Amino acid sequence: MGKLNLYILSFSLLAFGCKQETLNSPIVSNSNAPGTVANVKVVNQNGKASITYSLPSDKDLQYVKAVYETSPGVAAQVIASRYANNLTVDGFGDTLAHTIKLYSVNSSEVSSAPVNVTVNPLTPGYILARRSLEVNITFGGFTIKAHNPTSDNLAIIPMVDTTGKGNWGQTTGMDNVYSADTVITATIRNQPSVERKYAFAVRDRWFHYSDTLFLTLTPLFEQQLDKSKFATLVLPHDATVLNNGGYTWPYYMYDGNYHPGWPSTYFTVESSITPQMVTIDLGAVHTFSRFQINPYKEVGNYYYVRGNPKDFEVWGSNSPDLTDPVSATNQPGSSWTKIDTYHVTKPSGSGYQIETTADQQAAYNGWQFDFPTGLKDYRYIRIRQLSNWQGSYFLTIAELTLWGK
C-alpha cells in the first residue's frame, strides 16, 4: 500500500473516531440548573414510601433523583425517568422520620437545588415477620412459621447455644430460611432430643435485623426406621410390578439405593387405569414423624416426569383384611385408615420436561413430607398413587425412607 493511501486511511479513521465521540456527547451542553419538582406528596408504606411530584418544565430534563439514608451513614439513591412523576424510596429499617432530597437533573448532568421531603415509613416487613414468628418442637427439630404480609425477601436465622454458655451458632442442617412468601414455613431437623437454648432472628435484604426470640426447646426423639425389617405385603388390588431383574415385588423401594439405575427401581406397569397401590410391612408398630421419597431418574435426566409421584395418599393399618373390598377407584377398605394426601411441588413451577438446577437438586435430595401430629401408630403402610407427572396412575419410586420411633 502506498504512502498516499496510508495517509487517506489514517485521516478517515481519525474523522470516524471524532464523529463517534460527537454522537455520544449531548447535542446541547446546558450548565443552567433545571427547575425543581413541585407539589410533592408522600404515601408512607411498610419500610418504604411512595413519592409523587410535578415535573419542572425544562425541555432537557433527564431524570429525577432521590438521595437519602436508609439508616445513619448508609446512603441510598433512587432515579426516576423524565417520563414518570413518581418514585419509591425503600430499605428503611425503622419508623423514624427520614429526609429525602429530590433533585431534577438535566441532560448535562446538572442538578437542581434539592427539595427536601420527610417520610415516615410504616413498620418494616422484617419486624412484622418477627412479631408473628412461631417456633414449635417436632420430631428431630422444630417448625418455624411467620407471616410476611409485605412479601419482602426475608431470612429467618435459627441459632443454638451448643455449650450453654452463650456461644450461638448454626449446626449441621440448621440453615437460614429464605422466603418472600406471605406465610413463611420451614422445618429444621437433625436436632438432638435434649434440652437446649435456641435463638431466632429475622433479617431483610438490607441487613436490618430484628430483636431475637430466645427459646428453650427439647425436640421430640426420632430415628430412621430400620429398612432391614421391612417386607412386602402383596394384597389384592396392589399394583402389578414390572419384572425388574428378577424382582417382581417392591424390594427396590427400600434397598438403600437412593439413586439407582434401571432396572433397580420400583416400577409398576403403565397400563393401569385406576389409582395404583403398594403395601409395605414395616416389621413392627411405629410412631411416624416424616418420610422421604426419592424419585427415579428417567431417561434424559428428568425427575418430574412419567410415573414419579405427584399426588398420592398414604394409608395405615395394623391388621389388613385380605378380603377387604376396595372401591371402583381402587380405594382401600375399612381395615385401612387414610393418614393424609400429599402433593409434590416443583420448585420452579416450570412445564413438563423443563427442570432447573433447583428442581433437580430437590429431587435428588428426596421429597420430604411430615406425617400429621397425634397420629396413631401403625405397622403397615400403603401408598396410593392418585396422579403421576404424565397424568396417569403407574408408579415409580427409587427409594422410600421413614422416620419415627
What's the CATH first level of the largest domain? Answer: Mainly Beta
- Quote the average pLDDT: 90
Count of alpha/pi helices: 3
Q: Could you state the oligomeric state of the chains shown?
A: single chain
State Rg.
32 Å
Organism: Pinibacter soli
Domain DUF4959: 17-121
Domain DUF5000: 254-404
Pfam families: DUF4959 (PF16323), DUF5000 (PF16391), DUF5126 (PF17166)
Provide structural commentary.
With 405 residues, the protein is mostly beta strands. The protein folds into 3 domains: 38-119, Immunoglobulins (Immunoglobulin-like, Sandwich), CATH 2.60.40.10; 125-221, Sandwich (Immunoglobulin-like), CATH 2.60.40; 224-404, Jelly Rolls, CATH 2.60.120. The chain has helices at residues 3-23, 125-132, 357-365, and strands at 38-45, 48-54, 61-71, 74-81, 86-90, 98-106, 115-119, 134-138, 141-147, 154-161, 168-169, 177-179, 183-188, 196-204, 213-217, 223-224, 231-232, 266-267, 276-286, 288-294, 309-317, 337-343, 367-370, 378-388, 396-397, 399-404. The strands form 7 sheets. Strands 10, 11, 12, 14 and 15 form a 5-stranded antiparallel beta sheet that branches. It is elongated and about 90 Å long. The model is unreliable at 1-23 (pLDDT under 50).
